[in-house]
């Protein structure tokens, strides 16, 4: 395999679930959660875009504009609480600051932090842990106490039905009783530069109806993404902790205003991504993701 010669010729191994047409069984079985059963997957080596020029640009659109068009956004946001996350007070301070940043980015009435997860790319030590389905926003939880593995199959966290239900649980009333409700996650590394398993995203503009299937999980119901050559995946090369990716997962307007419904996202393995990085900085990717419910009243 030829080596990478420039940042514009990047390739990565990306995980996808198989579409219905390639299954030898009824895909409806995946609408009932069974931890012993999962949809078959495939790993493909694809060209990926380096999003660093975008986030470094002086002309980067506002996060709300990016979310409207793409379903994801890139933003810079410095946080002083990352080192304190392994404590209840530190986690709460991080959630509060993240929620306030989202409120400013979206210009909404309020933002509710639903939950948080810390993931580490360490398959030998970190295995998927069962989690009881939430009824209300998480309280007094320290995400480093329940490390989860990276999410290596392309997906969207919630389908429209589960997104609506999650918002209802967070807000305390149906989304039809507010002007708008939206689920947007924030994702950032806890240390950088990220040299393995970075988060890649695919714009809603590049997803087609046939690329999507629904699946039940321990968390609710989400969307699987199947590969389509028309998709375009990108990531922030050597992402740092003050560089944040916003991931739209649900919108109560469901596109009535012309906005993207969601974006696809997945941890990928970029070929040669640690080249040129000092060896002492190359370590398993560790990240924190916060699921937020934005409300317009």
Taking the alpha carbons of the first and last residues, their distance comes to: 54 Å
Overall shape: globular
- Quickly give the structural class: alpha+beta
Strand proportion, as a percent range, falls in: 25-35%
Overview of the molecule:
This protein has 297 residues and is α+β, with helices and mostly antiparallel strands. It has four helices and 14 strands. It has helices spanning 52-55, 63-70, 88-106, 160-171, and strands spanning 10-17, 41-50, 72-76, 110-120, 155-156, 180-189, 199-202, 212-216, 221-225, 233-235, 243-251, 264-267, 269-270, 286-296. The strands form three sheets. A six-stranded mixed β-sheet has the order 12-7-10-2-1-13, with no helix packed on it. A five-stranded antiparallel β-sheet has the order 3-11-6-14-4. The longest helix has 19 residues, at 88-106. It is globular. Mean pLDDT is 95; it is low at 1-6.
What's this entry about, in short?
The chain has 297 residues and is of the alpha+beta class. It is built from 4 helices and 14 strands.
């Amino acid at each position: 395999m030829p080596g990478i010669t420039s940042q514009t010729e990047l390739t990565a191994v990306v995980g996808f679930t198989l579409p219905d047409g390639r299954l030898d069984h009824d895909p409806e079985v995946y609408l009932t959660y069974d931890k012993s059963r999962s949809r078959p997957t495939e790993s493909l080596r694809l060209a990926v875009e380096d999003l660093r020029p975008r986030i470094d640009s002086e002309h980067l659109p506002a996060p709300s504009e990016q979310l409207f068009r793409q379903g994801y956004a890139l933003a810079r946001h410095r946080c002083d609480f990352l080192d304190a996350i392994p404590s209840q007070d530190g986690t709460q301070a991080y959630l509060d600051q993240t929620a306030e940043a989202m409120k400013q980015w979206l210009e909404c009435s309020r933002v509710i932090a639903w939950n948080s997860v810390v993931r580490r790319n360490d398959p030998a030590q970190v295995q998927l842990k069962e989690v009881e389905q939430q009824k209300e926003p998480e309280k007094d939880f320290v995400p480093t106490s329940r490390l989860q593995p990276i999410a290596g199959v392309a997906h969207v966290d919630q389908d429209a039905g589960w997104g609506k239900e999650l918002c209802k649980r967070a807000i305390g009333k149906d989304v039809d009783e507010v002007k708008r409700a939206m689920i947007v996650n924030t994702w950032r590394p806890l240390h950088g530069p990220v040299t393995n398993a970075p988060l890649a995203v695919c714009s809603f503009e590049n997803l087609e109806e046939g690329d999507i299937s629904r699946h039940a999980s321990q968390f609710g119901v989400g969307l699987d993404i199947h590969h389509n050559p028309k998709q375009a995946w990108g990531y922030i090369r050597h992402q740092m902790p003050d560089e944040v990716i916003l991931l739209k997962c649900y919108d109560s307007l469901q596109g009535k205003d012309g906005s993207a419904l969601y974006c696809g996202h997945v941890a990928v393995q970029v070929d040669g991504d640690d080249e040129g990085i000092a060896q002492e900085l190359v370590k398993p990717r560790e990240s924190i993701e916060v699921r937020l419910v934005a409300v317009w009243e």
